[in-house]
Write a structure and sequence with these properties.
The chain is α/β, with parallel strands linked by helices. 57% of the residues lie in helices and 12% in strands. 36% of the residues are buried.
Length: 618
């Protein structure tokens, strides 16, 4: 036995979901919803009908009209109970199409009999007092109206209910005498029947249109759901692709960067230096492109988390300008910044990325201009501004440029990048609770502003590694563990040039336990063997001390050290810049576990320890 839906709307919704967008005009499937509507209402309306029959029958029976009111009451009660049973039987048969046709035919037949009995009662009252005739007329008229309200979905039964009872009621008035009053009353009964028929037809059409709309809406919802599912799958595929590209792209870029740094220490001719400079610039452009894609992927999957702390703005702005100085010379741009002593509470890495993207955008789209980076204090907050004297941006494009993959200008094909920088700035501003604004017009340059930075008390000024780092790193014993040949070779060459004593291995099994170790530089994923974190833990246990260490990874930073078992491990995201690696080594010499400056390039790649690691990687 099928469970009955609790409401009519639930039954109709279920019917629509089962049938789908099929024609409504005729046929078992098209009429299925009508059967649901008819019998769901019938299970209630026929109970009300029985109460009306009992009240009317008892009133007539105790009015001295003889035996026939009792017979009328019994016959009408049998018909009403039969209607209840028909409705219940249909609901229990799970709305099978053939069951609907059979039950609807039986419903129409019983309705016809009920109408005749109602009309017959009016005929029996021909000689009754006028007040009883008036009472019966009102009851019959109300019952006919009730038939319209409960049976309009199935017009056959609805019209039968009206045009069996009402003509007999008209005849009853005419039989009482052919005078003006009775004839007028009969004609009004005819008009009432016509009005009820028109109302039934309009209600039927209204409900039919609503069912059509509901089915069309259900079909569109199904299509929208399917499209949404496809988009979600495509988004997931994109995230998986970018995650894989994260590791595959970072490995060679990381190795190339270290090789280029090694070449800078060699004696090269003028032509060699020019070639090396071009390679360095191309590598920087490739690194920015890679980082933009990975930043976008991290934001899409919600992996970026802000780690708020006091930050010296001067170091962030100074480092951004220093990093962009080489590109500025290439673009013939005068890049300057106004020093400041202000400190703010924010995420240094994310803010560094935002400012860097704004400056990079200005350098690319405003060649031959002037670019100024500075801060403006506004009460207890600070705004960072990047101003250029370039071609400017039209007002209608102000909002569009913060969308992904949007690039403006007539010669964008000659400009590197994918149009992701400003969209990343916009999304990071939402993450940090900051406001990005743009004031620009064609021919008047552009002013980008990062507003809402909250002031913080000035802290200890971080110190950058000095020029004598080579002597400070001399004879530092560094163990390098990496399963990539190019990475091992480039890292070993660079560390050797800095004066370090280097032991290079591809796995933990190749480590020489007799050699001293002052610092461990280990890749996180080592070809399916133990992770870099596990290897560092074993080395610390074997040496009996908290061995300074750093993990370099091309994957997701937040997957490292989630259990927090190993303290004071610096995590570096590939590609690691030589200055970043040097800062980590100098910090180890000074018995520190973090780089001294929050505004070094390490900030943009998120240098952090496993104890207080943010999940951001930008």
């Amino acid at each position: 036995m099928a469970d009955q839906p609790s409401t009519l709307s639930a039954r109709l919704s279920k019917r629509l979901m089962l049938d789908g967008p099929v024609p409504l005009e005729s046929g078992p499937l098209g009429d299925g919803w009508r059967f649901d509507y008819l019998f769901a209402l019938g299970s209630t309306s026929w109970v009300i009908h029985e109460l009306v029959v009992l009240l009317a029958g008892l009133t007539l029976a105790f009015s001295g009209l003889g035996w026939w009111p009792w017979a009328w009451l019994l016959l009408m009660s049998i018909i009403t109970v039969g209607m209840m049973l028909v409705s219940r039987s249909y609901l229990q048969q799970n709305r099978a199409p053939d069951a609907g046709e059979r039950h609807a035919a039986l419903h129409t037949a019983l309705t016809a009999i009920a109408g005749i009995v109602w009309g017959g009662g009016a005929i029996m009252l021909v000689t009754a007092p006028a007040e009883l005739v008036t009472f019966y007329t009102l009851v019959l008229g109300g019952t006919a109206l009730g038939a319209v309200s409960s049976q309009h979905a199935w017009l056959r039964s609805c019209f039968v209910a009206i045009w069996t009872a009402m003509p007999l009621l008209m005849l009853a008035f005419l039989l009482r005498g052919l005078n003006l009053q009775h004839i007028s009353t009969a004609l009004m009964m005819l008009l009432y029947a016509v009005i009820l028929s028109i109302m039934a037809l309009r209600m039927h059409n209204f409900v039919t249109r609503n069912v059509d709309i509901s089915r069309e809406l259900a079909s569109k919802i199904d299509a929208l759901t399917a499209t949404t599912t496809q988009l979600e799958q495509a988004h997931a595929e994109k995230s998986r692709f970018l995650a894989q590209a994260s590791h595959d792209l970072r490995q060679p870029i990381h190795a190339i960067g270290l090789f280029v740094e090694c070449l800078k220490g060699l004696r090269l001719g003028r032509e060699g230096r020019e070639i090396l400079r071009s390679v360095d610039l191309s590598l920087e452009s490739l690194t920015r492109l890679c980082r933009s894609l990975l930043d976008l992927a991290a934001l899409d999957v919600g992996r970026v988390r802000a780690s708020v702390a006091p930050v010296a703005l001067d170091h962030i702005l100074g480092e951004v300008v220093r990093q962009g100085s080489e590109v500025a010379r290439e673009k013939n741009v005068k890049l300057t910044y106004v020093p400041t002593g202000l400190w703010v509470r924010t995420d240094a890495a994310l803010l560094h990325t935002m400012v860097q993207n704004l400056v990079s955008n200005a350098l690319k789209y405003a060649p031959g201009s002037r670019v100024l980076v500075g801060v403006r204090r506004r009460g207890e907050t600070v705004a960072i501004e990047v101003i250029d004297t370039g071609p400017g941006i039209a007002v209608q494009d102000h909002a569009r440029i913060f969308q992904e993959f949007v690039r403006l200008g007539q010669h964008v094909e000659h400009i590197d990048g994918l149009g992701l920088g400003l969209s990343i700035v916009s999304r990071l501003s939402q993450l940090l609770g900051l406001t990005i604004s743009l004031n620009s017009a064609p021919g008047r340059g552009s002013r980008f502003s990062i507003a809402g930075l909250k002031l913080a008390p000035a802290g200890q000024t971080p110190m950058l590694p000095g020029a004598g780092y080579s002597s400070r790193l001399k004879d530092l014993s560094v163990l390098v563990i990496d399963d990539d040949d190019d990475v091992r070779e480039s890292t070993a060459r660079l560390l050797s040039r800095w004066g370090c004593t280097v032991q290079v291995v591809a796995s933990a099994s190749e480590i020489d336990p007799s050699l001293p170790i002052d610092f461990v530089l280990c890749d996180y994923e080592l070809g399916g063997g133990p992770s870099g974190e596990e290897i560092i833990g074993r080395l610390r246990d074997a040496r009996g001390r908290l061995l300074p260490a750093a993990i370099i990874t091309g994957g997701r930073i937040e997957s490292i050290g989630v259990d927090g078992k190993l303290p004071d491990i610096t995590v570096l995201a590939k590609p690691v810049r030589p200055a970043q690696l040097r800062s980590v080594l100098l910090s180890a010499i000074s018995a520190q576990t973090k780089p001294r400056s929050e505004a070094t390039p390490a900030a943009a790649a998120r240098v952090e320890t496993s104890r207080a690691r943010s999940k951001a990687e930008t």
